[in-house]
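Support reply, case 0932

Customer input (verbatim):
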Amino acid sequence: MKKLLSLLLLLIVSTTLAACGAGEENAETASGDPKKLIMGTSADYKPFEYVDTANSDEFIGYDIDLAHLLADELGYEIEIKDMEFSGLISALKTGQVDFVLSAMTPTPERQKNVDFSDVYYTAKDMIISTKESGIQSEKDLDGKTVGVQLGSIQQDAAEELSTSIQLKVETRDRIPELIQDLQNGRFDAIIIENTVANGYLDKNDELQGNTMDVNEEDAGSAVAFPKDSELTSEFNDALKKLEENGELDKLAEKWFDGEQ
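Our regenerated output:
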């Protein structure tokens, strides 16, 4: 009887220790180091996140600087993983990354799968076309083929627009692919964020941009996290501090006012 009780006690202790160990594993970050966070991004979205290949192979941009400011404020190190924009939500859900900072809009559909921080930046969409196309607004897209980034809110906007006019929507994984296919005539126009579009318009005289009407509440960018992540409230606190001390304004001036 004593031997049986001892075995039962040992089983209970072992089960308890295993449960504690599982809890510790769940608390770990994607890197396995509680002080290091893995950030997912799609580094094709200048000036938010991109690589200036002429000068280095490092990630730079508004979101990259913001990520480092947030990490410094909270005492984390970060490792950046570049991937297709359409795969970022899946990477969060499967634990490949701890957070996503990639000019992502917290749409209701995305909020079903992940949590978001407060909005840190708000932009608008722009129709980019050749100057000879005659396209000036959404109604001019009737009967046209329009390119958008796969998984983006611009894809949602274009598909919604296609319910009211005759519009063919095609997707690409990366912004440079959209620009290239516009220039080689595969698209009549593309829809991308205005801040991103400005960089391409400055370098391509044959292109023009027209800002679309948009609901301001649907145009913000936020940081994405796995559901119920403790990081969400931590990042919100840090974002609030960066806003109050003027660091967010400095970032906007650096990346959106022609200094880069």
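We compared this against your earlier run and they match. Two observations from our side: Confidence is low (pLDDT under 50) at residues 1-27. The CA atoms of residues 109 and 153 lie 11 Å apart. Please reopen the case if you see a mismatch on your end.
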